[in-house]
Design goal:
The protein has 768 residues and is α/β, with parallel strands linked by helices. It contains 27 helices and 19 strands. The strands form three sheets. Strands 3, 4, 7, 8, 9, 10, 11, 12 and 13 form a nine-stranded mixed beta sheet that branches. It is elongated.
Length: 768
């Protein structure tokens, strides 16, 4: 039995060992947590990284060939302006050293071009998000769920414990044809009803009552509903242990979420058999044929009385109360199977019941749930409530939580019962499933059908669940969210994320973090592609024109470190902002590089390439280096180019924080890691330029040159602000190319068809 999970029923268990002291615990300890599974975002990033790598490799090969040709044709000059290779005069060793330097430049271009920082950025942001989500009461079981949650378009939420506090108390009771105020008073209560209620509640329960050792007070355990009913029965005078000793249990029908009721068959001390049922009020009412009046007499359940009871139930439900009914009947002992095995398959009679009481249990909404639902709706995420309660309770709670808006309840299919939804065919469900806001009296199967229909309609579905029967829906959904407090082990195993406090507000926080993961990766991609385009273009153009590259291998490796490792660390750990929750969710097929990113990237890269190429070809004149020797002038110019290029990346890193906002400094005080990395990069850059000349091929700069470099980098800030005022089309850039391909394919198909017709006509004419 080791490793098995209890799916249903109740019993007594003796625990002999836990954790690593069990065989199952030892097996689980040997299983590696990391299964090497790539998340959907990582798969998409691999495609981007492969494309960038191929472009970089092509540029590197081209630069290598150009530099080799220029070297052996005598067009490559040293720092003194003399050719580095002369046929028949240059030694083999010098020629080999020249080839090695060219090869090093080409390899460095490949290193810079290949975005090895992308996997690091994904890992960093996922790990950071998982750690922070734990503080927000969300335990991530599957990494890909972090990013998928950011794309969620709908959340199918349970009511009890998620939208409500799960703190239940009986606040209304309807007994003997009249309302009881307060519900726990015994005054005027017929003794026969009191005795039968106490008997049924004490035996037909999965909870228990015991006396506390410390205070001596009665302590009630069990599910919230059971605790509410048992606490009410205690006030009616129930002595739990005494009542249970007066009768023996013959057979139990465990509460079933499909049938919405549970029953027990009892053999009393006088050998009389009583069968007690409790469950959803309207379902129990349909099984009742009689009721007991205030004098203790049994009366027939007439249609008028049924309507009266239904109005009572509807009134309680409209007041957001969960309605539970109690009923019983007697049974002849001869009709009860004697054999234990036969009794296990015995169906407890559930017809001809006598109604004892209808109670209303209050479960107040969580204080912040309405605000959380509003945040979701503003973010383009539709919240749907799926509950086992009747349709009136569901409607009242949904209205209180803000799931149902004024006037929305009158729309067709906005509120639907599980059995009605189940009765439609699969194709019919797809036609109206988007309209559903509330599903009442739903079974786990109904929830599964709802999830399947929503996914077929293209939604990214998140589902909350706590019961064993919720496991199929949790597994089917894009993101399964199980409850950490009320959730069963089976539900947790089937889920992707465990909500530790069972609070819907924590679900909203998970959505925020999911969107933050995607946004942070996009920030890093924009930053990295800008550096890639600028560095590759500068070195390529310089290599073709002058045969030399302004950025050396060591300098490019330092830029690569800023861009990949430090850039990933800075941008991938940005905390989520409220801005993320005022835009629609990211679609399944939405491109990773958006039009906004292309706009920012192209403008910044064009600016950097233009400025640095001007410095490459006209730098000696602009920097007033005419009086210096050629070697000295080139050394200073190349150092300024390198320094300005690094400052462009540092300033552009701020721009990448807010790709679609002008104020790039918002929230900077809270981004301590970002500020720390920028400061660290600045300090290292000063040290490299001023003190690492031999290693990095730089020379110390005077204060004027430093100001020039800083100003060049600073200009990217106002430039970014102006560029962000330029509107971009909503249609992704990639869609335009797909449209052109389709048009070409369509035109070629039409052309081939017309050519075919022409050939046929020619053949016919020739035959004639």
């Amino acid at each position: 039995m080791s490793g098995c999970k209890v799916a249903d029923g109740y019993g007594t268990m003796l625990v002999t060992a836990v954790g690593l002291n069990t065989e199952w615990g030892l097996v689980m300890a040997t299983i590696s947590e990391d299964n090497g599974e790539e998340t959907p975002l990582q798969v998409r990033l691999n495609g981007v990284a492969t494309f960038i790598g191929k472009v970089g490799l092509a540029v590197a090969v081209l630069v290598f060939l150009i530099l080799i040709i220029r070297f052996f044709t005598g067009h490559t000059e040293d720092k003194y302006g003399k050719p580095m290779f002369k046929a028949g005069k240059t030694s083999v060793g010098d020629a080999f050293n020249g080839i090695v330097k060219i090869f090093a430049i080409a390899v460095t271009i490949v290193v810079v071009a290949v975005p090895e920082g992308l996997p690091l950025a994904v890992t960093l942001t996922l790990a950071y998000s998982m750690r922070k989500m734990m503080a927000d009461k969300a335990l991530v079981r599957r990494l890909s769920a972090c990013e998928t949650m950011g794309s969620a378009t709908t959340i199918c939420s349970d009511k009890t414990g998620t939208l409500t506090l799960n703190q239940m108390t009986v606040v209304k009771a309807f007994i003997a044809g009249e309302s009881r105020e307060p519900p726990d008073t015994t005054e005027g209560l017929p003794p026969v009803i009191q005795a039968l209620l106490v008997e049924g509640i004490s035996q037909n329960t999965t909870g228990s009552v015991c006396k506390s050792k410390g205070s001596g007070e009665m302590e009630v355990t069990g599910s919230p509903t059971e605790k509410a009913i048992l606490s009410w029965a205690l006030k009616l005078g129930m002595n739990f242990d005494d009542e249970r000793s007066k009768s023996s249990v013959l057979h139990v029908f465990t509460f079933n979420s499909e049938k919405k009721r549970g029953g027990v068959a009892l053999k009393r001390s006088d050998s009389e058999v009583h069968i007690h049922w409790k469950g959803a009020a309207e379902i129990i009412l349909d099984l009742c044929k009689t009721w007991i009046d205030s004098s203790g007499s049994v009366q027939e359940m007439t249609p008028t009385k049924v309507d009266e009871n239904k109005k009572i139930i509807e009134g309680m439900a409209a007041a957001t109360l969960r309605c539970i009914a109690f009923a019983y009947r007697t049974c002849d002992l001869h009709n009860v199977p004697v054999d234990e095995e036969q009794r296990q398959s015995w169906q407890i009679p559930e017809d001809n019941l006598t109604l004892l009481a209808i109670v209303g249990i209050k479960d107040p909404c969580r204080p912040n749930v309405r605000e959380a639902v509003h945040i979701c709706q503003k973010a383009g995420v539709k919240v749907r409530m799926v509950t086992g309660d009747n349709i009136y309770t569901a409607k009242a709670i949904a209205t209180e939580c803000g799931i149902l808006q004024p006037g929305e309840d009158t729309e067709q299919y906005a509120i639907i019962e599980g059995r009605d939804f189940r009765s439609y065919s699969e194709d019919e469900r797809l036609k109206f499933v988007d309209k559903i806001c509330v599903m009442g009296r739903s079974s786990p199967t109904d929830k599964l059908y709802l999830v399947q229909a929503l996914r077929k309609r293209g939604h990214v579905v998140a589902v909350t669940g706590d019961g064993t029967n919720d496991a199929p829906a949790l597994h089917e959904a894009d993101i399964g969210l199980s409850m950490g407090i009320q959730g069963t082990e089976v539900a947790k195993e089937s889920s992707d994320i465990i909500i530790l406090d069972d609070n819907f507000a924590s679900v909203v926080k998970v959505v925020r973090w999911g969107r933050s993961v995607y946004a942070n990766i996009q920030k890093f991609i924009q930053f990295q592609l800008t550096v890639n385009v600028a560095a590759l273009t500068i070195n390529f153009v310089a290599a073709i024109s002058s045969g030399d590259v302004p950025l050396t291998a060591v300098q490019l490796l330092w830029v690569n470190l800023i861009m990949d490792t430090l850039g990933a660390l800075a941008l991938a750990t940005e905390a989520p902002t409220d801005h993320l929750m005022i835009r629609p969710p990211v679609g399944r097929r939405e491109p990773l590089i958006t039009n906004i990113m292309w706009r920012n990237l192209i403008v910044q890269a064009f600016y950097q390439v233009t400025v640095l190429l001007v410095l490459t070809f006209k730098g000696n004149d602009i920097l007033d280096l005419k009086l210096d020797s050629t070697a000295r002038a080139n050394e200073v110019r190349n150092t300024v180019i390198f320094n300005a290029f690094v400052f462009c990346q540092i300033f552009n890193e701020f721009n990448s924080r807010k790709p679609d906002q002008i104020n790039i400094f918002r929230g900077l005080r809270q981004s301590h890691l970002f500020v720390g990395i920028i400061s660290f990069t600045l300090v290292l850059q000063v040290l490299i330029v001023e003190f690492a000349g031999k290693f990095a091929k730089t020379t110390p700069l005077n204060w004027k040159k430093w100001i020039i470099c800083i100003v060049i980098g600073f200009i990217s800030w106002p430039l970014a602000a102006i560029v962000k005022l330029i509107p971009v089309p909503e249609t992704p850039l990639s869609d335009y190319f797909r449209l052109k391909k389709r048009r070409r394919r369509h035109s070629s198909e039409n052309r081939s068809k017309s050519d075919g017709k022409a050939e046929v006509n020619e053949g016919q004419n020739h035959h004639v």
